[in-house]
Design a protein that fits this description.
mainly alpha, 12 helices
Length: about 260
């Protein structure tokens, strides 16, 4: 029974991708025909030769990479403190860190837009990166805190007694022990930034064009093959990332459950 239920869930999740693939490589597919009458890759080829798509893809990759790096740099010490220490007001700190995940995105975006206009960050790549940190950083802290929940600091104490300095201690002891969790947290931040539409639209002010913005504008054009091909390009990185990190995600899920 569990196997059939799992297969049904997989089918529901993969059905949209299969439909996108049929439309992306089809020609003259009209109702009630179950399958297209002709197949070609012209929609993909047009997109690959489109400079606007290449620019949006580059912007999305750059944003995702920058958000991942900054989220890890900022979230690592906070997650370590929350995961390894018990102190007064810890619950309040948790609430403050995760407040951006429960507030309406439109309210956050409008407030940031007003602030960034005053700081001359609206319409800039830096402004969009800082805006994406809002939803990405809490998930990075949450993931790394689960890692540090199971972390044994005695390894660091032993390394210090052997004369290891703080910098070498981090690179040779701390980071290798938590590296799988760091990678998963960074991937979470990348995926969150990759899929952001509203914050990019509000803060980017039409100057920063990413794949989600390009996809929404393409949908209004009404060409099913182009929409499907662009959708496949958009979902390819998340699907690939999840497939490559499935084992690590299971481990981090167990760590998060232990945290509570």
């Amino acid at each position: 029974m569990k196997r059939f239920l799992r297969l049904g869930i997989y089918a529901l999740l993969l059905a949209p991708l299969g439909l996108f693939a049929l439309y992306a490589f089809s020609q003259r597919w009209f109702f009630p025909a179950p399958f297209p009458r002709a197949w070609d890759a012209s929609a993909f080829l047009r997109l690959l030769h489109n400079p606007r798509l290449r620019s949006a893809l580059g912007q999305s990759l750059l944003l995702g990479g920058a958000v991942s790096l900054l989220s890890l740099v900022l979230g690592f010490p906070a997650a370590r403190a929350l995961g390894t220490r018990t102190f007064r007001g810890r619950e309040v700190v948790w609430f403050l860190f995760f407040l951006p995940t429960v507030l309406p995105p439109l309210a956050i975006g409008m407030g940031l837009n007003v602030l960034f206009l005053r700081l001359n960050l609206a319409g800039t790549l830096l402004g969009v990166v800082l805006a994406h940190l809002g939803p990405a950083l809490p998930y990075v802290i949450f993931t790394l805190a689960g890692v540090f929940r199971r972390y044994d600091p005695n390894f660091e104490h032993q390394a210090r007694t052997l004369g290891l300095g703080e910098a070498r201690l981090f690179w040779r002891v701390t980071l290798p022990l938590v590296l799988p969790g760091v990678l998963v947290a960074g991937l979470f931040a990348f995926l969150i930034s990759w899929s952001q539409y509203l914050l990019t639209l509000l803060i980017g002010s039409g100057q920063v064009i990413t794949l989600p913005l390009l996809l929404f504008s393409t949908v209004s054009g009404g060409n099913p093959a182009t929409i499907a091909a662009l959708s496949l390009i958009f979902v390819a990185p998340p699907v690939l990332v999840i497939a490559l990190t499935a084992r690590w995600l299971d481990d981090q899920g167990a760590a998060i459950q232990e945290q509570f």
